[in-house]
Amino acid sequence: MSPDALNSLFALCIGFAFAGALASGYQAMAERPAGFGLLGEGVAPKTFAAVPFLVFAAPFIIMRNTLRGAKIERRRFEFVMMATVLSGFWSMMSGTFFLMTLRAAGLLV
Asked: What parts of the sequence cross the membrane (predicted)?
């Protein structure tokens, strides 16, 4: 496996792990699952605070909603596959940003 492919795989895994940790932490604190409905609460400071949270927690939320929808609503395979690819790409990008931030802070070589 090439170093670039390994780096992308690591970013993908870190992105999903970070998204899952954020969403699980939110659920533990708020006692309800995180969702995109956080943006629909009007113009308020907590709505603006929800944007960066959702940017990093979105891959977990997308996969959770997709897998639940596939089971409950009997969604088609194509829709589930498209959501999985979107979530994976989003996770890889947020994982890359997270790793770049750690490298810039000197916590990762």
From this structure: 47-67, 79-100
**φ, ψ dihedrals at 100, nearest 5°:** -65, -35
Percent of the chain clearing pLDDT 70 (strictly above):
100
Give pLDDT, residue 36: 87
What one-character-per-residue DSSP string does 73-107 give?
A: S---HHHHHHHHHHHHHHHHHHHHHHHHHHHHTTS
- The answer to whether 62 and 84 are in contact (CB under 8 A) is no
User: What's the pLDDT score for residue 47?
Assistant: 81
For residues 59 and 16, what is the distance between their CA atoms, to the nearest angstrom? 7
> Residues 15, 90: contact at Cβ < 8 Å?
yes
Q: Is the Cβ–Cβ distance between 60 and 23 less than 8 Å?
A: yes
The whole-model pTM stands at 0.84
